[in-house]
Here is the input.
Amino acid sequence: MPFIDCEQWDAQRLMAEPRVAVFGPSSDDVRLRDRTGEALGLALGPASEVLSDAAAQQGLFVAESSKVANRALDAGVEPWSVFLERKWVEKSQQLLDRIACEYPSVPIYAVSPDQFRMVTGYQVTRGALCAMVRPLLPSVKEAVCGARRIAVLENINNYTNIGAIFRSAAALNIDAVLLTPTCHDPLFRRAARVSMGTVFQVPWTRIGSVSEWATEGVALLHGLGFKTVALALRDDSLSIDDARLVEEERLALVLGAEGDGLAAQTIAQCDYTVRIPMREGVDSLNVAAASAVAFWELRAR
Here is the structure.
């Protein structure tokens, strides 16, 4: 499908275009409210009538910026439409040419700043938006196959922290990331952007079927050969540099949300409880910062 310049389109025509309407503000609102691991795709509305079978069944997500979209494409993710301000066309040309070559039926819509704000409800400063078909998630066993170090994220519902943790995981050789049912969606536009697209480089999936995931989830990890490490501030916690930890062949590092931290039942199920030693008067790090320290210190040797 050719490049489409929408300069002469009025609001009614623009919003009636199914492959444009998916970029509307309701998309992010829906995904922010739904953190259960179910139905995390966009609110499709009229777009559902023109979706492919895969897109209709799996849903869509929005990748923001050429870097994120290219990393998604590298991972085999299928684009569905592209939406961008004209000022980004030149800087996004490599991405646009790639999509036009590999997926010639995917429409690319170029709009004015006013049209962009009218559709999305916000002003993006990082480039093109690309609606893409949500990949099917692997099983836990498939996601951790061959892994020596994995991260398990419990109830982390801040998209910035999710994105930052994935970026650290990719950089510091974490082989997979597992998210409990109430964690935020890593493919949420801003989470994937903060991750710099590494959500498409690190294998990930959901673990557990309920918010109290640990009973079944930790048992599953044990069955797959992992020792579990709860990062928690307790008087009986081991120091993160304890020699016993790095000697373990397979470790699952379990991190909790800001404020509440890990649930007591999760800590009770884990093999080790570990803390990062800190200067007196400072009791904790942001979970994204703590993850980077833990990933490095407990890396496979």
Summary: The two ends are 50 Å apart (CA to CA). The first helix runs from residue 11 to 16. The longest strand covers residues 79-85.
